[in-house]
Write a structure and sequence with these properties.
It is a single chain. With 509 residues, this protein is an alpha/beta fold. Helices cover 34% and strands 15% of the residues. The protein is built from 14 helices and 16 strands. The strands form 3 sheets. Strands 7-6-5-4-8-1-9-10-2-11 form a 10-stranded mixed sheet, with helices on both faces. The radius of gyration is 24 Å and the shape is globular. The protein binds calcium ion (CA).
Length: 509
């Protein structure tokens, strides 16, 4: 009898406990949402419709625009070092290049250091990365990795899959999407929240569209940026020395006048049928340099946007799966790129500089029930330095003291802290084949001070983005003396705050 009562009591207690536990777990599950981080390579905000601008009605990004419509779009997301590998290392670690050790492409990421995915695993998350890694060493901190070697190819890629080389046939953007969906559907542990990083190669050069997009924009004449024929007067020497010119540096591979050997014969046949007659017509026309720049720009921007189109379709497929599977409500979707890019502005087709087009990167965040839909954040200065802490904060994990950014969660909730950063520090290190010297600088979003240190240049630039948004005229030493002096003070302050090594601290003299 006693036993029966006890058993009955126990059974009722169990049911109540189970109900109570379920009540606790429901908000708990919601407190630990999944994170889908969709990341591209060299996707400029100018080629994302939701950002507006000259290509707003042309950029083929309805699915990316949907993330903006249903979440927050950041206008001032600035990178710390505008180049592929270093930007990725910053996102892994939440630390500037001089502390994570990956200053320039060609470095090797030290995978033994703490990273956001490692902390997320400790917090009970499942972590996966599919696509472009570009940090040379084997990914660490992931339950599943499936990554391109180096830059990877646009067609028929090999993906290093948890240590094994696996060859695929098809268009790389599609394959990264399919493999990501396969992990979501079939390979993850459905009982754990996840971080999935879907990292496309596109729209990095050489810009090879999917075969189905070859004729997209075919009949259109794309608008040209007003600075396509920039003569670089009004700025210091460095910009005139770059080697990513629309004429001299746009080689035949970049223009799809020659193709890579990675294509199958069937793929080559379709490429030939499209490009060959157009290339021959252009070569026969014997264009002047001026007209060749215009032709190169049209070829470049169309192929670039065709690559963006496949990325947008990938985003559409991922969002559709979140909807179908019921995961959408409990998944934070973040879209960003490793840095901005020049789409012909200043006659360029690259990144690296601290000028706006490459300093700015897209950032869109959808978080149902937390982030208000359709908000454009015009003013807060945020950075890829913040992503690691943001991931951890979304997961409810503790934030390591040595990360150098800040969680974006309060900003996403519309409660930007009063002491949020007012100045952003930038530092580019790779003085290589693209003719961009080492430089660093600071911006408050309105004014920008850039230092090109000795011995190469020993010069400065200063811009007022309000009166000169295209940064055509440096006002260094001429106007706003107090603002320039303050920016120098802020630059010194940030260089100390971010623990630059002693031997780099004297670059201001
Ligand atoms: Ca890049």
């Amino acid at each position: 009898m006693y036993f029966a009562m006890t058993s009955d009591w126990f059974s009722r207690f169990s049911i109540r406990f189970a109900a109570f536990a379920a009540l606790c777990l429901a908000p708990l599950a919601h407190a630990r949402p999944n994170i889908l981080f969709i990341f591209t390579d060299d996707h400029a905000t100018q080629a994302l419709s939701a950002y507006g601008g000259m290509l707003a009605d042309i950029a083929p990004t309805p699915n990316l625009d949907r993330i903006a419509d249903e979440g927050m779009l950041f206008k001032r997301c600035f990178v710390t070092n505008s180049i592929c590998g270093p930007a990725r290392a910053v996102i892994q670690t939440g630390k500037y290049s001089h502390l994570n050790g990956f200053r320039k492409n060609g470095n090797r990421f030290d995978g033994s250091q703490p990273t956001a995915p490692k902390y997320l695993r400790q917090a009970g998350y499942q972590t996966a990365i599919v696509g472009k890694w570009h940090l040379a060493s084997t990914p660490t901190g992931y339950d599943h990795f499936e990554v391109l070697r180096g830059q990877g190819a646009y067609y028929n890629p090999m993906l290093i899959t948890n240590g094994e080389n696996v060859d695929h046939v098809g268009y790389t953007t599609d394959i990264i999407t399919e493999q990501s969906l396969d992990w979501l559907k079939n390979k993850r542990d459905a009982d754990k929240p996840f971080l999935l990083m879907v990292q496309h190669k596109a729209p990095h050069g050489r810009w090879e569209p999917a075969l189905r997009h070859l004729e997209l924009f075919d009949e259109m004449e794309m608008p040209e940026p007003s600075t396509l024929f920039d003569d670089y007067s009004g700025r210091e020497l460095p910009i005139s020395q770059h080697k990513m010119r629309m004429l001299e540096d746009m080689n035949d591979y970049r223009l799809m006048i020659k193709y890579s050997s990675k294509h199958t014969p069937e793929q080559l046949e379709v490429f030939d049928a499209y490009f060959k007659p157009r290339n021959e017509a252009m070569l026969a026309a014997n264009l002047s340099d001026h007209d060749r720049i215009k032709w190169n720009y049209q070829r470049y921007i169309k192929n670039y946007l065709r690559c963006v189109k496949a990325v947008d379709e990938s985003v559409g497929a991922l969002l559709a799966y979140l909807d179908e599977s019921g995961l959408a409500e409990d998944t934070v979707v973040i879209y960003s790129s490793d840095q901005g890019f020049y789409l012909g502005e200043h006659g360029m087709f690259d990144k690296r500089w601290m000028y706006e087009e490459s300093l700015r990167t897209p950032l869109l965040v959808r978080w149902p029930g937390v982030v208000e839909a359709g908000v454009v954040n015009e003013t807060d200065i945020v950075s890829n330095l913040d992503y690691a802490q943001t991931f951890l904060d979304i997961a409810g994990a503790s934030l390591p003291d040595d990360m150098q950014g800040a969680s974006l969660v309060p900003v996403l909730k519309g409660n930007t802290p009063p002491d949020w950063r007012k100045y952003h520090y930038y530092h580019y290190y790779e003085h290589g084949g693209h003719g961009v010297p080492i430089h660093f600088g600071v911006t408050d979003g309105r004014f920008k001070l850039i230092r090109y240190p000795a011995p190469e240049h020993d010069t400065w630039e200063f811009f007022d983005l309000k009166s000169d948004p295209q940064e055509l005229t440096s006002l260094y030493g001429r106007e706003y003396p107090e603002i320039q002096a303050n920016l120098k003070t802020q630059l010194q302050r940030l260089r100390s705050q971010y623990d630059l090594p002693e031997d780099e601290l004297d670059g201001m003299k």
